Amino acid sequence: MSGKLRLAEGEASRTACARALLRTGVDEETGEVLSQTVLAQRIGWCADLVAGMAAALIGAHWNSVDVEVLAGGVDAGGRRLPSNAWMALRRLGWTATPPRGVRVNDRIVRMAQEQAGRALRSVKWRPM
């Protein structure tokens, strides 16, 4: 049994966001507790990294053929694409890559793919 709410024809789901307060962080390599200033700088760097990766992915697939494929919801093998945008992009082989010399874990890549996938999916339904 899936935990997802089934939607009726013509209904769409929405994702909500919640604010969170980060008071502290720890450098995994050194065990050093990070100050709020350093933590804010690192979060900002990460957000910029994700935004840049997502922008590159959007730019690579910002065309009517790719948008139609993603919005159509079916992969080349005829299988239904996952509802999570990052999973749908992976199924299609559309990957987000960090800048040269930067190594990131998969969570960062998934965030960029989710952001790009949502933007690309929404293009089909926006008025031109």
The gist of it:
48% of the residues lie in helices and 3% in strands.
What key attributes describe this structure?
single chain, 128 residues, mainly alpha, two-stranded antiparallel ribbon, 4 helices, 2 strands, 48% helix, globular
Give a description of the structure.
- The chain has 128 residues and is mainly α.
- The protein has 4 helices and 2 strands.
- Strands 1-2 form a two-stranded antiparallel ribbon.
- Helix 3 packs across helix 4 (106-123).
Mean pLDDT: 88
Beta-strand fraction estimate: under 5%
Outline type: globular
* Strands, count: 2
How many individual helices?
A: 4
Span of the ends, CA to CA:
39 Å
Q: What is the alpha-carbon Rg in Å? A: 18 Å
Portion of residues within helices: 40-55%
Helix and strand sequence:
EEHHHH
Query: Reading side by side through the largest sheet, how are the strands ordered?
Result: 1-2
Task: Name the structural class.
Answer: mainly alpha
Task: Give a quick account of the main beta sheet: strands, pairing sense, barrel closure.
Answer: 2 strands, antiparallel
Contiguous low-pLDDT stretches (5 residues minimum) are none
